[in-house]
Amino acid sequence: MYPDSHSSSGATANWLLSRIDTPPVVGIVCGSGLGGLADTLKDPVAFHYQDIPNFPQSTVQGHAGRLVFGTLKGKPCVCMQGRFHLYEGYPIQKITLPMRIFKLMGVETVILTNAAGGLNQDYKVGDIMIVKDHINMPGFAGNNPLVGPNDERFGTRFPCMLDAYDRKLQQLAQDLGAELGFSDFIREGVYCVLGGPSFETIAECRMLHRLGADAVGMSTAHEAIVARHCGMRVFALSLITNQAVMDYHSEERPSHEEVLETGRQRAEQLERLVSTMVGRMEINNNINV
Ligand SMILES: O=P(O)(O)O[C@@H]1C[C@H](O)[C@@H](CO)O1
Ligand SMILES: Nc1nc2[nH]cnc2c(=O)[nH]1
């Protein structure tokens, strides 16, 4: 009934570890159209999801479906070139399984990226939002990735989420954003996850905005919950790929093509921000850093 267990993530972690030289300390998840990040890794070793035991398959355009190991600014990293979403039909425990595999391989810090619609009226398409918090809408209806028997080897039954997104990493991103000359398009805000795949109605966008969300998407929060449950540090970025429409007179229509196109236009800056961050991050263990 509950597809994840310590044994399936453990078997996959061991399978991967036996095929790479250096265990990763940073895990990166590439959002829609942001997979180019994985191509920036040095000395890459890549696995197609279909070849990895217990791994789900990517079914969405803009998610290549490869797990890439390599170094970024000298730090050993693993990069998911494509993630899994609730709307693909996988159980929520399955779409977050890679977080536990990351943990078992030695990852300390997870960087999540996503494409999102901008609810905050000050946001523009192409802005990069540092996620300071999330609203987990599916969780309100009981669809939380930690539902089911709790495996104490990963973490506690009732994990705290008040510090889901690491504040020091948020500050580092602000500082580096300024250093790189990105201040004009760097924001900070609250990400709200919905199940998708339909985009929001106007009434839903208005409601989410009033609830305090700055951006809306279909991922990330579940991964953050599972990553925090097992003690990894989490940092997340949303690329605002389209404006959420709040006006019945608007002719704007969100589309996945627009999402991918904005990803293409901002990919280079987003990749620079992430790689600069990885370069400056403090890593706690002694593996090659
Ligand atoms: O994987 P992310 O959250 O970046 O993907 C977003 C949400 C949908 O999968 C898709 C909509 O265009 O982009
Ligand atoms: N739910 C949702 N996900 C997105 N991903 C990219 N843009 C959007 C959006 O407008 N809404």
Automatic annotation (TrEMBL):
The keyword Glycosyltransferase applies. One of its GO terms (molecular function) is purine-nucleoside phosphorylase activity. Pathway: Purine metabolism; purine nucleoside salvage. Phosphate binds at residues 32, 63, 83-85, 115, 219. It comes from the Eukaryota. One of its GO terms (cellular component) is cytoplasm. Its EC number is 2.4.2.1. Keywords: Glycosyltransferase, Purine salvage, Transferase. One of its GO terms (biological process) is purine ribonucleoside salvage. Pfam families: PNP_UDP_1. Residues 26-278 form the Nucleoside phosphorylase domain. A purine D-ribonucleoside binds at residues 200, 242. It catalyses: inosine + phosphate = alpha-D-ribose 1-phosphate + hypoxanthine; 2'-deoxyinosine + phosphate = 2-deoxy-alpha-D-ribose 1-phosphate + hypoxanthine; guanosine + phosphate = alpha-D-ribose 1-phosphate + guanine; 2'-deoxyguanosine + phosphate = 2-deoxy-alpha-D-ribose 1-phosphate + guanine. It is an enzyme of class 2 (transferase). Belongs to the PNP/MTAP phosphorylase family. This is Purine nucleoside phosphorylase. It comes from Denticeps clupeoides. The lineage of its organism: Eukaryota, Metazoa, Chordata, Craniata, Vertebrata. The gene is LOC114793906.
